[in-house]
Amino acid sequence: MKQTKVGAVMTTDVVRAAYDTPFKEVARLLAGRRIGGLPVVDEDEHVVGVVSESDLMAHQVKAPLPHEPARGFRFPALTPAARRRAAKARARTAGGLMTPSPVTVRADESVAEAARTMVRRHVDRLPVLDEDDRLVGIVTRRDLLKVFLSTDEALREKVIREVVENGLWLSRQAVEVLVTEGVVTLRGRLERRSEAEAAVSMTRKVDGVVAVVDQLGHRIDDSRWKPERAAAHAGGEDWLRRL
Q1: Which residues, 6+ apart, have CB-to-CB distance to 94 below 8 Å?
Q2: Measured by CB atoms within 10 angstroms of the end CB, which terminus of the chain is less buried, N or C?
Q3: Which helix (H) or strand (E) holds 189?
Q4: Model-wide pTM > 0.85
C-alpha cells in the first residue's frame, strides 16, 4: 500500500528562531506570519524546543502592570511545573520561553502516523526532521487534511488500482467500488473470506478514505481451516528457505 508521506504535505519554508532570539522578535515572527508556534533550533538546525503563543501569553500574564503595587513575600513554588512557569515569566529569549524536548516527526513517516502523533500528544503542529535529525519542514493539522481533498472519482480509481489490482491481484471487475463523499462501498463475491476481509482492511488504509461499507460476500470460509492444514501448505516454503 502506498501511503502519502509527511514530506509530501509539509511546509518547507519554516519560520524558526534561534535559542537567543529576543522575546519581541519571536512575537513579531508569530504575528507577522500568522502562526501559532515555531521551532527553536541550534546552530546545526537541530530542533531543541518549540515556542507557542501560549508561552508568550504566560509571560505577559505574569508581568506586573506599571501601576501594580509590589507584592509581599511569598514562599517560592516548589513543583517543577511551577518553576517552569516562573522561568517562562522571566524569559527574554526564545530559549527561555520554549518548551524543550519537542514532539517531532520524520519526513518519511506516513500522514496517518503523523495524525496519530498529533492526537496522542495533543499538539497542532510538528517539526519535520530528516535522517540526520535536522529541521526540513513543519506539518500542521491542516496540512494532514489535504489527503481528504481528492474527488470521489479519483479516490475510486485509487482504491481499484491499489487494493483490487495491486493488493489482491484481481481484475478491476471483480469488486464493485462506489465512493460518495469519501465513503467507499465494496460490493461483490470473492473466492475466500480472507480476500474479502483483506479488501476491507486495505481500503481503510488508503489515504483519503473516510469510511468503508463492507458489502462483500465469499464462496469459501477459509477462516475455519485447521492450523495443521495451513502448516502443510507452508511446509514446502519452509523447506526451500532451509536450502
Answers
A1: 17, 18, 19, 20, 21, 22, 23, 26, 40, 49, 51
A2: C
A3: strand 183-192
A4: no
**CB contact burial 85-95 (16+ within 10 A = b; e otherwise):** eeebeebebbb
Strand partners, 190: 218
Provide mean pLDDT across the span 84-109: 84
Max Cα distance, the chain (Å): 86
Q: What is the three-class DSSP state of 185?
A: strand
Render pLDDT for 164-191 as a digit per residue (tens, 0 to 9): 999 999 999 999 999 999 999 999 999 9
Q: What ranges make up the beta strands (E) of 6-115?
A: 17-18, 37-41, 47-52, 99-100, 105-106
Cβ 37 vs Cβ 43: under 8 Å = no
| 3-state SS assignment for residue 216 | strand
